[in-house]
Amino acid sequence: MKTTLLLLSLFSLLAPLLRADDDTPVPPEVQKLVESMLTAFKASNDVALKACWHSPEVAGKLKAAEAVKEGKDPAKEEEKEIKKQTRNLEATGIRAGQIRVLITKHFGELAQLTLNRVELDVDEDAVPEKPRYSNVKIRLRSGDGTALKLEIDDAVRIDGVWKFQGRIDDELTIELPDED
Q: What are the pLDDT digits (tens) for 111-127?
């Protein structure tokens, strides 16, 4: 009995710490970015979808500036980053198409998807001139009521503009409702 009471007390003290990631406030600009991305996703508009990501060239220029500070070859670092982000955008387009097919096949029309909420993790390594959130979790509800989750690597503000960086995760998560 005392052990059970002790465990329950310990859990109640630790529970807020375990949920801390879900408590990160979502800036209005990031919320709008997610809504724009979802609109493009539902419309199967890959051009508009990719416009929600920083261009490889913008990411490359930023990487070159960081390379100068670190004493590395800026041209080489810029080229590597452009190639990396170009691959990420290509993967995002392919994955978005695959996820659209799965959702339509198993959960109903894309037009019926609704945004429940956005969850972010603060990237502790981000510098003030380049704020960043990692693990952007987009929680959706399908037309048939199924809870789904899409994830994107990062949301980054560059030159005052919030956009995604990285790629859409290669998993579409089905979330079962909590049973009390």
A: 999 999 999 999 988 88
